[in-house]
Amino acid sequence: MINDVEVTAIDANHCPGAVMFIFKLSTGRCILHTGDFRASPDMESEPIFWNNDIDTIYLDTTYIAHKHNFASQYESIDRAKRIIREFHEKRPTTRVLYVCGSYVIGKERFWTNVAQEFNLKVWTEKNRLKALQSMDLDEVRDLLSDDPHKAEMHVISIAKVSYQSLVDYFRPFKQQYDAMLAFRPSGWEKNSKPQLRGEINIVGIEYSEHSSHAELERFVTYLKPREVISTVPVRQGNPCITPKIPEKWYKYDNLKKRQRNFQPSITSFLKMRPRQLVQNAATKRTTNCLTPTKSPDYMPNEISQLSVRAMATCIEVQRDNKYQATSQKVPAVVTLFPESEALDDWML
């Protein structure tokens, strides 16, 4: 809780340590900032999305264009494994140095899976090694070697994975290896063609740590926010120009605008007059709260159990007037509990 704002961090499925932030204001409004993320169906199981309506999303729109629909990360990893096997089948006696392009942080899932599959030791540059050591991940620590001549895989800057750069890089290892097979894992590599030149071989793999167009659509459609704001500029040098989010993802002709009766605190709720409580309950939520059409144990997720009990109390007081409690499905009591009583005595 920071300045009356409830802040929740959830995994962004991007790189180690990457999180999305959800800010719940004192008014009940919820704002989601994804940061860099890759949307996944697993995110739909997050309890915070079940228990809260997201009003505004600040969305990572790196690959929002229709053309950016690519394979899942594990499909891309499997493709890299197939390429390695095929390379060995064609050149069974060739001693191969494997190279993987990466960032200081990022692509760990790709190269760790490949290294584990073929039992490869991994060497990487000092800045990346320091970052990896700070993560203290068992699956990474067990693979690392501090000697480049004792490691069959080198993880280097993805900017160095070009033909001329790799020619220079490979020179000190020529006595130990016959060829190099280098991977460029990136979402921008979807339609790239392999560069197979005998000694230096480069293969682009469509491996992304950002959401595809289809994944973004599913994520936004699931959350049904009132507003979506893109955060990735479409032009370099002007951060104010960002892609437009398709309104069909979150605006529907038959989608009723959600209305919240937010309860700021227990004490403020109890200070409300019974008739005022009944009037608040008799809005669009009347059908759900008083005469549920679902199973008897159904309770709307936007109303706390405490609120339902207190509301039922007020409705009981007003039984002879306009509203009547449904005793079978909403618990009703005879008197309002005084504010001074222990809350534990009258929680559902």
Number of domains: 3
Biggest sheet overview: 6 strands, mixed
Q: What characteristic shape results from the CA principal axes?
A: elongated
- The CATH topology of the largest domain: Rossmann fold
Order of strands in the sheet with most strands: 6-7-5-8-10-9
Helix coverage percent of residues?
25-40%
Question: Overall mean pLDDT score?
Answer: 78
Q: What features would you highlight for this structure?
A:
six-stranded mixed sheet; five-stranded mixed sheet; RibonucZ/Hydroxyglut_hydro; 11 helices; alpha/beta; Rossmann fold; elongated; 348 residues; Metallo-beta-lactamase, Chain A
Question: How would you portray this structure in words?
Answer:
- Belongs to the DNA repair metallo-beta-lactamase (DRMBL) family.
- Residues 139-235 form the DNA repair metallo-beta-lactamase domain.
- The chain is elongated.
- The chain is built from 11 helices and 11 strands.
- It has 3 domains: 6-68 and 211-249, Metallo-beta-lactamase, Chain A; 73-206, Rossmann fold (3-Layer(aba) Sandwich), CATH 3.40.50.12650; 266-346, no CATH class.
- Helix 2 runs parallel beside helix 3 (108-118) and helix 9 crosses helix 11.
- It has 348 residues and is of the alpha/beta class.
- The strands form 2 sheets. It has a 6-stranded mixed beta sheet, with helices on both faces. The protein has a 5-stranded mixed beta sheet with strand order 1-2-3-4-11, with no helix packed on it.
- A hairpin with a 3-residue loop joins strand 9 and strand 10 (200-206).
